[in-house]
């Protein structure tokens, strides 16, 4: 097949006509897939040594949540370095990042693969990948024709990125040199709630206001704090973290404000507190609702006057610190109950943010599952980790009372279970791998907003027993070999097995 001038003109018009539309990236990739007649295609944005999917067609929806690090994906690294059309042989030894990620074809490998790097000037801004299940699927296209497609796509893509940058600063054109080190926090999610949260983060990050971040446990409040700091003028200075819930009352004041030598028994030297450490930067106070009323009063003074006193010192020190605070409590209710100071609440909540629970984020659960699958795949050295269609359905129907943190742990445990069930480096997560951990196999009824929460300790112990039994079975009841398979010290495995009743 050869492209006529009319066909190329039509492609150019189609690509440019959709760049101002809300689904501009999806329109672009759908057009290209139709023209090039491939089984799967993806438009990837390049950023800090990784490719981030912006639009896909013919691939599992969880691919949108995956982040493809170059060092973990040699094909994508080859595309990033090539500067021209890359055709991979059907029998290439390089693993394809999309193997098993075409719906309904989880056990089949991609056979035909072409990569088109996309440039804006000399800067790599992304890539277009074309995949087919037939080895000679793209042989009719010449390199020159594919270069034209790449040039047209790169122009439309760069324009779309610039438009998106104006609308949403979270999508940036990659104008930095290729192969730099990643240094930012990304929040995965395309739902309405997450899109709104990202916009609010952009607005408040550019200011110097204190921020109160609310949300249920496990929703990712610390990530929000990191994103605010990274988007602020203080980003070159420290972001200091302090968990107020983990602070014993006896040392809390010292942790916050520091102490001088001899201030109390055990104070053998001067010590800086978190406020001093965060000077010119940001202090993130997690679980702020756990602070005692006495410490709340001292924290309020710092926010009002910008000075601190070390424990045992009469002198004041000036500090320039932006305070971000997080809580899973309703601090307005805490104020009414007398457990939180109203004046401190108003100082902290100049710009409140609420992180939505996972059950309200719709398809975000699939993107996050894909993200965690890819993370675990790299960590465990697996060739691929795919989600079956039934696993997709289960993920969407469970209410996730533990939110993103519960989902992350569920995916990691499911991969361990799947690998124990069928050893190898090609993992397909089925619904039962996830359901074994407490997620219901049956859909949540529409009238239910939250699924019943299992007893966490009992569920954890049941899971540990299952994994230990499976490891012993796979390793001929050899405890040392089972410990190696579970990546645990053999003595610790014996102790754990005794406590769980697996071993007399």
UniProtKB/TrEMBL annotation:
Which keywords does UniProt give here?
Answer: ATP-binding, DNA-binding, Nucleotide-binding, Transcription, Transcription regulation
- List the CDD domains hit by this protein, alphabetically: AAA
Q: Report the superkingdom from the record.
A: Bacteria
List each copy of the Sigma-54 factor interaction domain by range: 187-416
Pfam families cross-referenced by the UniProt entry: AAA_lid_14, GAF, Sigma54_activat
NCBIfam families named among the record's database cross-references? PRK05022.1
Protein name from the UniProt record: Nitric oxide reductase transcriptional regulator NorR
Taxonomic source organism: Symbiopectobacterium purcellii
